[in-house]
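PROTOCOL LOG
Step 1. Enter all chains and additional molecules of the complex.
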Amino acid sequence: MARKRSAHGWRRSVKLGLVTGAVAVLVALIGMVEAFSQRDIVAELLSMGHALILFVLLFGALLAARGAYSAKGLAWGGLAGLVASLVLGGLVLLGSLIPLRQVFINASPVLFQLLSFGEEPWPGIPLLCGIGFLAGVLGGTIQMLPHSLKSALGRSVGAVVGAGVLQDMLRPILAAWGPLSELSDLVFEASGLTSEGALGILLGVAGGSLVWERKGQRLLKGIQNLPHGASKALKTGWVSLLVALLLLLPQILGLFLSEVLTIVGLYVLLGLGLNIVVGFAGLLDLGYVAFFAIGSYTVAILTSPELGFFELSFWSALPVAVLLGAVSGVLLGIPVLKMRGDYLAIATLGFGEIIRILVLSDFLRPWLGGAQGIGKIPKAGLGGFEFGTPQELYYLILAGCLLVGFVSWRLRDSRIGRAWMAVREDEDVAQAMGINLVGTKLLAFATGAAFSALSGAIFATKLGSVYPHSFNVMISINILCLIIVGGMGSIPGVIVGAAALVGLPELLREFAEYRLLVYGAALVAMMLLKPEGLWPEAVHKRELHEGQDDTSRSVPAEGRS
Amino acid sequence: MKAQMTLLTCRKLTKLFGGLVALQELDLEVRKESIHSVIGPNGAGKTTLFNCITGFYSPEKGDILLDDRSIKGLLPDRIVHLGIARTYQNIRLFPNLTVMENVLVGLHPHLRAGFLGIVLGLPSTRKEERQALEEARRLLKFVNLSGKGDLLAKNLPYGDQRRLEVARALATRPRLLLLDEPTAGMNPKETQEMTDFILRLRDELGITILLIEHQMRVVMGISERVTVLDYGEKIAEGPPVEIQRNPRVIEAYLGKGSSEELSAGKIG
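Step 2. Run joint prediction.
Step 3. Record the structure below.
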């Protein structure tokens, strides 16, 4: 029996090695390795491209060594790493013999140089295989570490990679803060982290993580057991710190990062809206971008002097845009009331396209500007202050996000939110509980659409112009992805999802080209590893009275009368 | 006499699925504050009857009256507002909501909070929500689920899920409660508990019960009247003792000829 399992383990390692190798070859041939290697994580030691390959090999080895202990785990991991690097080595060999580039345009000499560590194929391929084997053994070792060490390692490596990848953003921020700028010089050099800096971060984060694993629980418990006044003061402190941080963020981050923040913020607004439709009410809407477009175009038409219809101010156009968004949400909702699941998705997808084609059409050109769009949309002003630069716009978007987040949060724990969730869980039973399906669904469509239109309105004034091509179906897909990755129905999940799926690709220009691939991979990984999302919806504790403490819960008479 | 008044009346109720006659000219009278059972072999049309009464199916012919008012053709959510609630043969809770939230959804017909009231947190809305939470807790206590309110419904054991479904139905404050095989899949002890519970619903809350049930011990133990369906037709109706002796009923359950072989009262 044991021998059979062991044979199974060897076979699995070879299989996983082959799969890992194939993934590594894919990543290399689509040009990701080469594009990523332009940035060093640790200067002159580890480029992002090599880190990517290493990560793929390590992951394969981790899977291969799963469930094994002692030397066998190391051997299985090593085998998987070796097989994977042999596959990759095969690619290098093939590349040196035949001109692969005619088929795979990314199979450039530079790529093969990278894969063989700058050597000729002869010492290069064995070197690659050796490193692959070592990576596999390392993966096997990691798999066998106790949980606390494993997570400490994960966090610290994550921190180093994060610091290396985001160096361009981190350095100016650190440089602006007197004493921190010296730290910056210590940790970073021209092309990446210094070796000492990387080691420092690695050890620091790992140590911190270990200490937290040991003492964190007790600390949390201590905070929970604080006397009422103290815990309230602590909470107030946290909140005011958070508010201060939110208010100062654009100043801390500078122009470029503030621009990224505004984009993330617009997606948070969109995500919170779609979260009501898809996450709360379970209505899969793929034409969500339509309401974004309606919000944008309403503001453009009402304010732009280019068309010369109204020339209202942004603030008088905004309520009209939001209202029109809500109305169009209802109008879309009516014909699809009876549809569920896939059918609903297809119908709404069509609606999104209809709106895009309408604004693009020559027929409506005098009113909607056609392919040239509408320009000269004025900035939003507020008593002499103008929301022009990204740093100023940030506050407008922050206000929008706070408002929409607050409304979502209030609705969630109410009669309306519960009706939405009941419809999501079981439409027939919801109706049998007295929920009016028509009203409930239309309200979800209208609320989501209104949030989207708000985002669109801000988008229009941010850009100063609107074009039909800004409103393609990919926006809808992006928003849906960020909700799924963040956690369906979870309000903080939307923010996390937007930061991860919209913010990160904006920061990493290397990613931009592979955005869709990364989305796909992220979705698949989420479904496999964490289907509930990065920040799932918390279960709401509501049986006990507010302010009632734990002691009353344990009164047995309460439960068994 | 008050006890003799009829709460629900079905008149010549007919429901067709294509060529299949699911219910044929069914007449049924459910008296106020009675426990009325509907029995019959599988496919006899029992659940179809429930679906017609609660508005999920619209019958082709006939009429359904609640307190002499026709409810035929009304949407299910309207019918709940009039005081008819139900449970399902295969439990249909909202699996990813908590136990409390399931009951709170049941309270939906009695909550008035509007969009603006909720967003602004008006005092009336907050008061209503507080009262709803209070009532939900009370209902959980009534069905013996206190302390489990914050669990997800899907994580409850089977018997608890059955009782939660009843609590959710009770939250709509029904006058007539339709229970579709409430003891399905229960062991004798659980069955006895459920039977006592159904009696409590009627005796303590004054709710009229219409019951679909396969376990004859339950049917015979608590029903005042029993209606027997076979192929969508009513083949017998009366007090349990009479039904047990009825040769047509025995035939429908056990096949032709059985009634001669079996002495009366041995079903179940």
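Step 4. Note key features.
The mean pLDDT of chain A is 87.
The interface with chain B takes residues 406-407, 410-411, 413-416, 418-419, 421-422, 425-426, 428-437, 443, 539-543, 553, 558-561 of chain A (CB under 8 Å).
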